[in-house]
Design goal:
Keywords: Membrane, Signal, Transmembrane, Transmembrane helix. The protein is of the alpha+beta class and 217 residues long. It contains three helices and twelve strands; from the N terminus they run H-E-E-E-E-E-H-E-E-E-E-E-E-E-H. The protein has one domain: Sandwich (Immunoglobulin-like), CATH 2.60.40. Strand 4 and strand 5 form a beta hairpin. It is globular, with a radius of gyration of 18 Å.
C-alpha cells in the first residue's frame, strides 16, 4: 500500500511542478500532445481504452485556467493544492463527463501506448472507459487530471507523458475467506495522477504571488 501511494504521488508531482510558469517564458504556440503508456513489469498492455476531456483552457497570460463547458469548474487552483483535493475534483469532473463528449478516445496497441495529438492548451481529465484483451486482466485506472502543455526548465513542453501503474485483477477463490484490501489500486492511480498535476500547480501559485507583488509595488 505504501509503495502504491508513493507511485501515485510521484505522477501527480510531475504534473504540477511542470506548470510553475513564469509569464516571460517562451510559449508553445503549437498544439500539445499527451502520451499514455500502460505497462506491468515492463510488459506493454494492449486493449486499454482511454477518453480525454478538456475541462479548462489555459489563460492567455498562462497563470491559471478557465473552466470549459459543460464542466462545472471555475479554474480555482486552491482546489488542487492537495492530493485529496485533486482526487475530489477529478471524481467530480468524471461524473460530469458522463454527459459530455470526449475530445478523443483511443485504445492502447501492442506497445501499450495511446497518443493524443492536436490538443488545445489546457487541463484534461483522463478516464479509462474500456478494457479488452490483455487490459481486461488488470484493474481499471482511476480518472486523473493532466496539464498540457507543461512548463519545464524554462520552456513549454508540448509533449506530456503519463505512465499509470496497473495492478493485476484479483481473482476470488471460492471457499476461501480472505480480508479484501480496499483502496490500494485507487490510491496508486490517484497518486499517479496527482503527481502529474502538483508540480505545475506549485508553479502557477508562485507566479500568481509574484504578479500580485509586482502590482502592489
Amino acid at each position: 500500500m505504501k509503495s502504491n501511494r508513493i507511485s501515485l504521488i510521484l505522477i501527480l508531482c510531475f504534473s504540477f511542478v511542470s506548470f510553475i510558469l513564469p509569464s516571460h517564458a517562451a510559449y508553445a504556440d503549437d498544439s500539445a500532445s499527451l502520451n499514455i503508456t500502460l505497462t506491468y513489469e515492463h510488459k506493454a498492455i494492449s486493449g486499454a481504452q482511454y477518453s480525454i476531456y478538456q475541462v479548462a483552457d489555459l489563460k492567455a497570460d498562462r497563470t491559471g485556467y478557465v473552466g470549459r463547458a459543460p464542466f462545472q469548474w471555475n479554474g480555482n487552483l486552491e482546489e488542487l493544492k492537495t492530493v485529496d483535493a485533486q482526487i475530489k475534483l477529478a471524481r467530480r469532473l468524471e461524473r460530469q463527463s458522463r454527459n459530455a463528449s470526449a475530445a478523443m478516445t483511443l485504445t492502447t496497441g501492442r506497445d501499450g501506448t495511446v497518443r493524443f495529438t492536436g490538443l488545445r492548451s489546457g487541463m484534461y481529465l483522463v478516464v479509462q472507459t474500456g478494457a479488452t484483451g490483455e487490459a481486461a486482466d488488470y484493474t481499471t485506472m482511476q480518472p486523473f487530471l493532466v496539464m498540457a502543455p507543461r512548463f519545464e526548465n524554462g520552456v513549454w513542453n508540448k509533449v506530456v507523458n503519463a505512465k499509470p501503474k496497473p495492478e493485476v485483477q484479483k481473482k476470488q477463490k471460492p471457499k476461501i475467506t480472505k480480508k479484501v484490501k480496499t483502496g490500494d489500486n485507487s490510491e496508486l492511480f490517484w497518486w499517479s495522477g496527482s503527481l502529474m498535476l502538483s508540480v505545475g500547480l506549485m508553479t502557477l501559485l508562485v507566479l500568481r504571488r509574484k504578479n500580485k507583488m509586482g502590482g502592489v509595488s
